[in-house]
Amino acid sequence: MAVLIAGFTAILGKWIQLHEAWLVIYRLFFSVIVIAGWITFQKQWKRMNPIELFKIAGVGFVLALHWLTFYAAVKYGNASVAVVCIAAAGFFSALLEPLFFKVRLQWLDLALGLVALFGIGILFNFHPQHRTGITFGLFSAFGSALFPIFNKRLLEKTEPVLLTFYEFLGGGILLLLLTPLYVMLFPAAQCWPQYTDWLWLLLLVLVCTVWAFKLQLDALKYLSPFTVNLMYNLEPVYGVGLAFFLLNEAHLFNQQFYVGLFLVLFSMSIQLWRVIQRNRKSRSPDQIPV
Description:
Shape: globular
Order of helices and strands: HHHHHHHHHHHH
Number of domains: 1
Strand content: under 5%
Structural class: mainly alpha
Largest sheet: none
Distance between the termini: 16 Å
Number of helices: 12
Number of strands: 0
């Protein structure tokens, strides 16, 4: 359910008429209000080290930029292009994880990531007007790969709910400072939500942000982090399916698009299979995720 909701965020990004920078700012700050109420109700407030808060805000800014470029991909391309580009996160993860965790570079992971990038490259040519959206989508994929690498270390010291609150707050403040420059480069047609925008923003905050976060935490009570992260690789599949049905985007694409999409899904499927096999070999039978 959490992964399906994640795929639905691209649809809401198309329905909400706000400029992408303001869309993310509203999403972050409204989510901060809801999560603050949750923490107060659960009495989970704790004093934080200022240095740790500074680090958390920096990671929150990475998340904010990931969301900003994702919704820019939706606005300048479309929802299908945005979610397909997220599959390039596997390629960036294959490059970044050895740098941050001092592990050996997995050449096959890198090769599969290149196949996905090749598929995205084919998408570049199917409609010239979507190239800006695809470029934003690739930056979003880079942020998607970078965020969990930084977040993993912070989760070792901070409770997930508190960490999310301070990441959203810090990321929102830093993005707000960046927004005037971003709007100069990509002018904002609409900065204040219209009547229908408020409805979709409420859905985005309560369901696609706060509730999806709680669903993921609940899943971690029964499943390993490996299994949960593995399932999130299905987000592009759900996102494309939802875009085809809810936004009627299927008629926009020709055969070239489906060739590119097949390469992306093929590389992702092989990678999922490899990770499952590798995980089974490194665990005893009773530790294998369900």
